[in-house]
Amino acid sequence: MEEEENLKRRKESEKPPEDDCCPICFGDFSIPCKTNCGHWFCASCILQLWRYRSTLQRCKCPICCRPISKLVPEASLLVQQEEDVIELLKKIERYNHLYVGGAYGFFLKVLAIPLLTRRTLRSVMDGLMNPDQIRLNYYLMRILALLLSWIYCSCQFEFIPTGGLGVWRLFDLCAIFMVGIFSLAGLYRRWVLRRRVRQLAILPAQPY
């Protein structure tokens, strides 16, 4: 009798609470998964949160701030055949592989280099397109231009026509131009996002 009760409690713990909701989207659980700290989230919500956090670090639980080293999907999802469920389960498995310790974990991280590279490039582009840090981007790009011009002169390359400006001046002007382009792109992206938010805000509430 006691074993049956323990088994029943264990099965109930593998499902999200019926009277609860996802702490990120505040909606009903969609493809729920449980963290190693015991909190439930929509799989898409917690993965999206991790995607916009630091590239090489584990996602932190929005409730208790503990690093999430493992995501466990609801047991009933493992037998479903819907394409969106299968795709999210693959992403959960990929996340779990990234933070496995030991030699096996290192091997899995090597296999995930393309994913980490894409995330790193995305983070760099987001920083360059952030209008709030235009001064920082300005100095960083000029330092990069100085470094590239030094490499160009040290290797005695002569394939870039400078037109009398000199290599350093040409690279410096290109860096300033790139900062301007990225800043304008960031301002446009911010305007588009704010416009979408305003459009969503004026939509009528859907009746339940």
UniProtKB/TrEMBL annotation:
One of its GO terms (molecular function) is zinc ion binding. Keywords: Membrane, Metal-binding, Transmembrane, Transmembrane helix, Zinc, Zinc-finger. SMART domains: RING. The chain crosses the membrane at residues 98-117, 138-160, 166-188. The keyword Calcium does not apply. Pfam families: zf-RING_UBOX (PF13445). Residues 22-64 form the RING-type domain. InterPro entries: RNF170, Znf-RING_euk, Znf_RING, Znf_RING/FYVE/PHD, Znf_RING_CS. It comes from the Eukaryota. PROSITE patterns: ZF_RING_1, ZF_RING_2. The keyword Metal-binding applies. This is E3 ubiquitin-protein ligase RNF170. The lineage of its organism: Eukaryota, Viridiplantae, Streptophyta, Embryophyta, Tracheophyta.
